[in-house]
Amino acid sequence: MAARQPRFNQAVLIDTTPLPESIPKVEEVGASSAPLMSASYFIGARCKAYNDDYMMCKTEAHGRGEFECMKEGRKVTRCAASVIDDITKNCLQEFRNHWECLEDNNQQLWQCRKWEWNLNGCVFRKLGLEKKIPGAPEHETPVHLRRRQIYSQNEKGVIT
Predict the structure, then answer these.
(1) pLDDT tens by residue, 123-142
(2) What are the backbone dihedrals phi and psi of residue 52, each rounded to the nearest 5 degrees, phi first?
């Protein structure tokens, strides 16, 4: 038997120290994982410069730099929120159909291609943003544009 009695110290620690005035205030995006995943390629397309600045700051800080890179991080958050706002203002029904499909299908993109095509078309027509997969081969049809998917469900719900 152990001579020491077990102790459980489970408390939520909240740091109430305010951030310095040099760090701009920003509202959080306020979206769950499904809407963020649905909009992720459009966020990447519009916010690439801000993302690159943030990642360069983190690289120069050798993976640290929580406070040093917070300005850049806030710019990324602001940009992502603006993309989601624009999508909801211009393509709400297509956006909702796609992210609800993702939510219902365990975030599996291949299960929701029909809704994704509708969303991609609407966002391109109204916002001029196009889904591009980074690193995809130039000579091949991107996976999200293929009419015949490798993984798909037939009429009976069986994965083929």
Answers:
(1) 999 999 888 777 777 877 76
(2) -65, -40
